[in-house]
Amino acid sequence: MVGRVAPGSLGLQEVHRFPNRPVRTGGTLHWDVLALYQGVLDGLRAAGPVASVGIDSWAVDYGLLDTDGALLGNPVHYRDTRTEGMADAVGEVLPAAELYAATGLQYLPFNTLYQLAAARGTAQLAAADQLLLIPDLLAYWLTGERGTELTNASTTQLIDPRTRDWSRTVADPLGIDLSLFPPLRLPGDPGGELLPGIRAEAGLTGPERVPLTVVGSHDTASAVAAVPAADDRFAYIATGTWSLAGLELDAPVLTEDSRRANFTNELGVDGTVRYLRNIMGLWLLQECLRTWESEGHRPGLDELLRQAARSTPLRSVVDAGDPEFLAPDCMPARLAAACRRGGQPEPRTPAEFTRCVLDSLALAHRQAVEDAQRLTGHEVDTVHIVGGGARNELLCQLTADACGLPVVAGPAEAAALGNVLVQARAAGALRGSLASLRGTLRSSLPLRHYAPTSTPPRSAWSAAQARLR
Ligand code: LRH
Predict the structure, then answer these.
(1) C-alpha distances out from residue 254 to 95, 100, 185, 210, 264, Å
(2) Does the annotation mark 68 as catalytic?
(3) Which of 55, 76, 219, 283 to mutate to test the pocket of ligand 1 (most atoms within 8 A of CB)?
(4) pLDDT digits (tens, 9 = 90+) for 300-326
(5) CB of 242 closer than 6 A to ligand 1?
(6) Is the pLDDT of residue 205 over 90?
(7) pLDDT higher than threshold 80 for residue 403
(8) By three-state DSSP, how is residue 346 classified?
């Protein structure tokens, strides 16, 4: 994505898009990180001369380097099953309540901490000299410089959100060597410059240096930076493969109630805290589409959404936060089984499955927005939906209906925009606080507004929520 920035205006252009296909070898699900890196180089070539480069990606996953700086094996995908049972193993050393008090991170089976527990005793970890999170790994290959960007580091479950630094309270008893991580870097910091060989490979033949700027390298941190909010009375939902729903705070909430509600305190751009809950997101639908395609029929998404809009509302809902939906494959059968277990009718057609997924997501959005307000005392009067799901009109309307609040949808490319905003400010092209960067977004981008309706009525959403409990 190429951003073009001037005071008060911001534009984004997609110049290259490449697939991210996980590969299973020897029973383990991996990322094809070299293919991703090649995609980055192709993207740089398509972009042409730029003033700065910034990288963000999904969180928690990492590559290990040996003492020569060579990558030790392909990074393992967070949806791999290697972390099964790791929460219990870690819990024997550090009980869940202590872990939460120290890190404020919600329980997700794939937090880097549990991945490192799973990797314990492997030859690869024993041989590792350094650990680089995915965006930091790509940045290292481009610049030769190594660092650990803070917003993404906060998803490892090894950071104390009060000090915004590594937590020895967690690392030491678990035998995790924090020297594996290169020094922390903050969004806006300089991150080196593209190596001459890389410039040549990317077809950037001019003499100009191309700096890499550290951004909120966790995609969700960049996406939240690009929430076009006008004041602080807002909740956000960054929807795409995941729905990340919550609030922006200036201090973490580490209470026991917060832990039980499984809210996380990830770190954001400019000293903020992303107080949110992970919800499975459009992954549920993406995986249904993949299954139907493998069975030889792929209904068009637009038609499917039109049919879903006409399907019976709230006929069957599932808990869209349940880790049982984390792994790939056979999603329609797993959704049907969850409906059956809940004593609800099983969806039969692709349209009914789609409606079940979207109703379930809207319900989970509502629950997260309600819980976040209750747990923090921070009230909201608007819900912002950013990320790819902002294009899904039915999901936006259902979320407005379920929450009983107006929804502002867009931008869909929030992560890329948040990334560009931080680079632009570091380069001096924009100035000011997060609030003023957001003002630039509001004046530059079209946003859609959804008012809550009462079909189905609020009571039907409450009844569906009660059914799930
Ligand atoms: C979204 C995301 C999310 C993480 C998950 C691993 O892309 O970064 O914030 O929890 O991927």
Answers:
(1) 15, 7, 24, 41, 9
(2) no
(3) 219
(4) 999 999 999 999 999 999 999 999 999
(5) yes
(6) no
(7) yes
(8) coil
pLDDT greater than 90 at residue 217? yes
How far, in Å, is the centroid of ligand 1 from the Cα of 173?
Answer: 27
Find the angle CA(322)-CA(61)-CA(277) to the nearest 5 degrees: 35
| Class of residue 231 by CB neighbours under 10 A (exposed 0-12, middle 13-18, buried 19+) | exposed
Please give the share of the chain, as a percent, with pLDDT higher than 70. 100
Instruction: Report domain extents, the chain.
Output: 2-217, 226-410+447-469
Ligand 1 pocket, 244 CB below 6 A? yes
Quickly name the fold that domain 2-217 has.
Answer: Nucleotidyltransferase; domain 5 (3.30.420)
CB under 8 Å to 146, separation ≥6 — which residues? Answer: 130, 132, 136, 140, 182
Task: From 31, 36, 60, 77, give the residue whose CB has the most ligand 1 atoms within 8 Å, as the site to mutate.
Answer: 60
Averaged pLDDT score across all residues of the chain: 97
- Whether residue 190 has pLDDT greater than 90: yes
Q: Is 220 in the pocket of ligand 1 (CB under 6 A)?
A: yes
pLDDT of residue 206: 78
| C-alpha torsion sign, points 306, 312, 318, 319 | positive
Any alpha helices (H) in 172-282, and if so which ranges? 196-201, 219-225, 256-260
- Cα of 208 from ligand 1 centre, angstroms: 34
61 Cα to the center of ligand 1, angstroms: 10
Residue bearing the CA closest to ligand 1, atom 2:
58
The CATH code that applies to domain 226-410+447-469 is 3.30.420.40
Topology alike, domains 2-217 and 226-410+447-469:
yes
pLDDT digits (tens, 9 = 90+) for 233-282: 999 999 999 999 999 999 999 999 999 999 999 999 999 999 999 999 99
Ligand 1 center to 244 CA (angstroms) = 8
- The CA distance from 357 to 297, in Å, is 19
Work out the average pLDDT over 414-420. 98
Ligand 1 atom at shortest distance from the alpha carbon of 58: 8
| Shortest-distance atom of ligand 1 to CA 242 | 1
pLDDT at 207 over 80: no
Using the mean position of ligand 1's atoms as its centre, give its distance from the Cα of residue 184 in Å. Answer: 20
